Give the backbone structure.
Amino acid sequence: MFSYRHAFHAGSHADILKHLTLIHLVEYLQEKPVALTMVDTHAGAGVYSLEDGFAAVSKEAEGGIYRLLKFKDAGNPIPESVQTYLDCIKAENVGGDLKTYPGSPFILARLLRPQDRLKLFELHPKEIDILRHNIGELKQSKQIDIYAEDSFSRLKGLLPPPSRRGLVLIDPSYEDKQDYRYLELAIEEALQRFATGCYAVWYPILSRRESIALPDRMKKICAAHQRSWLHTELRVENAPGERRLQASGMFIINPPWTLEKHLADALPTLTKALGIDGGAQFLLKSFEA
Ligand code: SAM
């Protein structure tokens, strides 16, 4: 526990899928003026330098955000769905090259309207200090609460939000195999208290049993609660062994009706831009309850 630092993965293909989806969810939920409460159950440090530190060691952004930008610079067409995501990332790098990558807390913080609130959970003793410092620098910081607590057990305490309009991003590190079980329990409890909330779960696609089973487990929970869902995956390579993460997925409970089209527009471009071998592919499925 606590060996995971998200800086190693900042700007990776998995971050691109997660953050592109997240931005669309917020934009849809903000179409109405009613206050939106956003919860990021696994926040990380908030924002990352791509020039030094862990991100510069792992170079995962080379296969992610930098690869996507090179694809664009080569003159390839970029759909609006992908451009919206790129604009958000670029906004963190005013007037220059991409040196900084915003994590989900910064992406969400920058999208806050005056009536919205953001709740961030982070357990790592070093990450929480960095997160507090980073968030403290933002003009939106007064709208943001930070909890150094276990989000799996604490999430239900924040639900339902006062305005009954809420978005929950659940993005564990899955460092501990138990995270898969804790995730299910947290979703079950959350749906009991706030059935109409929008829940976005990110997960790594690995050969481990729990990872393979995750989408079907989520579908079962949705069936039991009569909830609609959307399931998407992005694979950038299909090579033997698991030296690095080759694919990841998002499972959205109560997705907005616009999300499927948004992802259908984005995923062929992401697959082409980020694909490393012939195994690159995407999946997009949904079910309306
Ligand atoms: N959501 C971030 C983003 O997209 O930029 C990345 C988060 S990273 C995948 C997961 C984070 O969750 C790690 O920083 C880890 O320390 C933290 N974490 C792990 N278990 C936790 C728990 N039970 N409650 C809160 N945070 C936890």
In short: The chain has a mean pLDDT of 96. The radius of gyration is 18 Å. Strands lie at 37-40, 47-49, 100-102, 117-121, 144-147, 166-170, 198-204, 229-235, 247-253, 281-287.
